[in-house]
Amino acid sequence: MLRYRVLAHTADIGIAAAGATQEEAFENAAFAMFDLMFDLSGVEVSSGAQPPDECRVEAEADTPEELLVAWLSLLLAEAEIRGLALCRFRVEDLGGGRVAGTAGGVPSEGMVLRGPPIKAVTYHEAAVVETPTGWEARVIFDV
Amino acid sequence: MGFRRTGEVTWEMAPEGGMFVPGRVFASPALFAKAEADRALQQVANVAHLPGIVEASFAMPDIHWGYGFAIGGVAATDVAAGGVVSPGGVGFDICCGVRLLASALREEDFRRRESAIMGELDARIPRGLGKGAVATERLLDEVLERGAAAAVDAGFGVPADLERCEEEGTSRGGDPGAISARARERGKGQLGSLGAGNHFLEIQVVDRVEDAGAAEAFGLAPGMVTVMIHCGSRGLGHQVCTDHLADMGKAMGRHGIAVPDRQLACVPVNSKEGQAYLGAMAAAANFAWANRHVLAHAARRAVAAALGTGPQKAGMDLVFDVAHNLAKVEEHRVGGHSRRLCVHRKGATRAFGPGHPALPPDLRPVGQPVLVPGSMGTASWVLRGVAGNPAFATAAHGAGRMMSRSAAKKARDGREVRRDLEAEGIAVRPGSVSLLAEEAPFAYKDVDEVVQVCDRAGLAAPVARLRPIGVVKG
Question: Do B195 and A112 count as a contact with CB atoms less than 8 A apart?
Fold first, then answer.
């Protein structure tokens, strides 16, 4: 299964991330966000990464779409503040109006940008839907 | 969508469903056809659902599909009648805008020192990712309250620069206390940095003057080299919008408001949440005014260093600085009465006409300079505000995209785009070569046509056309 596909948008960039579970779709949406900026193929983060190369985020919101936007927005801010290209994601808790998880990455300094930096995560046409093969998380990024 | 042509360059959609006002688009038939090709017109209709909106949900000739508002969208809400403020009507890049400097150089002067000038700019203009910035974070608190004025006090630029900035480079009411720790953290290392995407610093030549009197008042003459800077409030502004959009989603229910797109979340201007957003937005706008100011200072020093002279000899006087992502409370006449309106301009430029008291005395007889950057490699324009503007004193903000980023990359890669530009005599210093492809000229509409429509629609009048000769990109 492809982790994500790019959705056409005139000025910005949309993605549809797939997963066998909602959690996996959220993880793949986060992967897509950073893979659009940096080519993450071949980027490895050591499994024992500790802060500042690993961060933990959590948010509360009323709907799956709001949780998706909050999850991605928090990761984007953490990556910018810590100067990281995040590449490994784990959603530990999703549901009941809450999302929590961790992400690990490598320093972004010196990495080649293959796409424009993503400024923010929008609610426009955001969706978390069940599909015949699992779940899909769709979102449009402002670039 | 139910739009019909109502004038040479005007298209209108009567209110349907929950629309409080009509949708109104200024476009030639060719530009309107491009707007029909994506979801921009639906977004114009969606904005007409904002409580308190007056007259129409407008769109400028460079309209294209955005998120929430269309890019090029303009909406004014009546503050006293419960009118709302919507962070989506400002966008994530709060107070993104354009600044134009007029140098003492002519094109041949630039060509003689092209490599040195481009090299100095390349070295001194921080861009792309990373923490490089011209100013230190010690300035941050001052900047959030006082914008470009704080940067001048810290030694960047000169006091006279402030007269040539919209709002004199300071958005009143900036409330650093309304900014989250996360937003401060994102912004603290970014004051004086360009960013990437469609942001740029460009060297241009005045290649045509359409209005000699206005050009002279603005300090522009044929053959003169100019420097244009396009950027905004960086991570700090993006985070302010993110924070307040999340809060407003919850607050909307308390105010009994429903909108067709979550990105249009809004609350009354005169509510606790509305005032908190406007205070944070003004602080982020102050970051953006100061950011462009500090970058202009770096550009002045770069050019002077390349020429081996003092900054005065290089000229580099500020023509004007405009925002094109902002909401502001302004007085406008509606139905024969003066009303306090919250005017949202999302990818649209304020364009005050002659005589407006907000303009500096030397520009008041002429009207406000309106800066319309084209795409990389194509012309940009300087316009002036005119009397009787039909869209709350607003004009276009650029050429407007028409091709997605992935389609642009498929058409030509970054190296090919660089070669194309260099073949046109445009020196290029990209932060990332692959990003050049996404900003290729063919991904954008024809800026000359956008300007023509602005003129015909009475939005703004052309003053001078600028041709690019050097581009520094993120």
Answer: no
Greater model confidence, B392 or A1: B392
User: Is A11 close to B65, i.e. CB distance below 8 A?
Assistant: yes
User: So where are chain A's domains?
Assistant: 4-142
Total of domains in chain B = 1
Per-residue pLDDT at B375 exceeds 90: no
Are B405 and A115 in contact (CB < 8 Å)? yes
Q: Which residues of B touch A108 (CB under 8 A)?
A: 129-130
Size of interface A-B (CB pairs under 8 A): 118
Give the gap in angstroms from C-alpha B302 to the nearest C-alpha of chain A.
Answer: 24
Would you place residue A46 in the very low, low, confident or very high pLDDT band (cuts 50, 70, 90)? low
Q: Is the pLDDT of residue B424 over 80?
A: yes
pLDDT in tens, B133-192: 788 878 999 999 999 999 999 999 999 999 999 999 999 999 999 999 999 999 988 999
How many other C-beta atoms are found inside a 10 Å radius of the C-beta of residue B160? 11
pTM for the model stands at 0.96
DSSP B178: G
In a domain, B421, yes or no: no
At the fourth CATH level, the homologous superfamily of domain A4-142 is Archease domain (3.55.10.10)
Q: Which residues, in sequence order, are CB contacts of B401 under 8 Å at separation 6+?
A: A10, A11, B64, B71, B443, B444, B445
CB-nearest partner of A112 from B71, B195, B432: B432
Nearest to B196 among A9, A117, A126 (CB): A117
Calpha distance B377→B335 (Å, rounded): 43
Residue B125 counted as domain residue: yes
Q: Which domain holds residue B125?
A: 3-402+444-473
Q: Is the ipTM of this complex over 0.85?
A: yes
Q: Is B448 helix (H, G, I), strand (E, B) or coil?
A: helix
Is position B416 within any domain? no
* Residue entry with tokens 């000038």: B117
- Mutation target to probe the B interface, by most B beta carbons within 10 A, among A65, A112, A119, A141 is A119
Residues of B serving a catalytic function are 397
Q: Give exposure, A74-108, as e/b (b: 16+ Cβ within 10 Å).
A: bbbbbbbbbbbbbbbbebeebeeeebebbbbbbeb
Tell me, what CATH number does B149's domain have? 3.90.1860.10
Residue A118 has pLDDT above 80, yes or no: yes
Considering the domain boundaries, does residue B415 fall inside one? no
Q: Which of residues 17-76 of A touch B (CB under 8 A)?
A: 37, 61-62, 65-66, 69-70, 73
Strands B315-323 and B97-106 come out as: antiparallel
Tell me, what's the pLDDT at B38?
Answer: 87
